[in-house]
């Protein structure tokens, strides 16, 4: 794990990259890194996230500044700008049931070839997907999701990069830390090694490549 600045962090995000971003309606989202992506105008991104939050928060700031060419999310209901861009054909939106989205990310991190789920069978979710029947029940084959970079938000880490999240701000972050080539984490503080009880660690430092500290530019 290496501690870097926000400017250094966004150098790993190239135009056209696929980026996973943790958070749920902006809770547990690395706002400082997103602000720097907006500042540097790094565009044509494919973003994998739970949602597009709000126009002035989280992933919504990337959408509002037209830095996304595609989002893969479970809903866009709280962001009118995402809806407008989708209807206008300015943004590709792939809507995925939330549980399926989480499992596809997990599958990407675990090296699985996909998952089988009954969710979406017989609906428009089924369109273009392989249907597999097992013991008389139909399932959709959903393919794994992986990314070039994962942007994660944690409450704190130690100098080995072991992460602790803040309650429900955990959400998608641990899954996404498994499913990207480069993992960049924004933390509120860094604490000495040994000060985090092992059973509080949700993401081990071996998965973390770079850390930035909130408020330290």
Automatic annotation (TrEMBL):
One of its GO terms (molecular function) is CoA-transferase activity. Keywords: Transferase. Gene3D superfamilies: Glutaconate Coenzyme A-transferase. SMART domains: CoA_trans. Pfam families: CoA_trans. It comes from the Bacteria. NCBIfam families: pcaI_scoA_fam (TIGR02429), PRK09920.1 (NF007394). This is Acetate CoA/acetoacetate CoA-transferase alpha subunit. It comes from Fervidobacterium gondwanense DSM 13020.
């Amino acid at each position: 794990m290496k501690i870097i600045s926000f400017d250094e962090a966004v150098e790993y995000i190239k135009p056209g990259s696929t980026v996973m971003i943790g958070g749920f309606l902006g809770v547990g989202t690395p706002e400082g890194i997103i602000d720097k992506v907006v500042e540097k105008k790094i565009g044509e991104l494919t973003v994998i996230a739970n949602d597009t939050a709000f126009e002035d928060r989280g992933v919504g700031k990337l959408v509002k500044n037209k830095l996304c060419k595609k989002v893969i999310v479970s809903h866009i209901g709280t962001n009118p700008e995402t809806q407008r861009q989708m209807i206008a054909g300015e943004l590709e939106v792939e809507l995925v049931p939330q549980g399926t989205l989480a499992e596809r990310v997990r599958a990407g991190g675990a090296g699985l070839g996909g998952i089988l789920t009954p969710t979406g069978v017989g609906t428009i979710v089924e369109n273009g997907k392989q249907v597999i029947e097992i013991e008389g029940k139909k399932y959709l084959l959903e393919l794994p999701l992986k990314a070039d970079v994962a942007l994660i938000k944690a409450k704190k880490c130690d100098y080995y990069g072991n992460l602790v999240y803040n309650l429900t701000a955990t959400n998608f972050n641990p899954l996404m830390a498994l499913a990207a080539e480069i993992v960049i984490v924004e933390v509120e503080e860094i604490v000495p090694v040994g000060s985090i009880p092992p059973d509080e660690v949700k993401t081990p430092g071996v998965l973390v490549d770079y850390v930035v500290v909130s408020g330290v530019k």
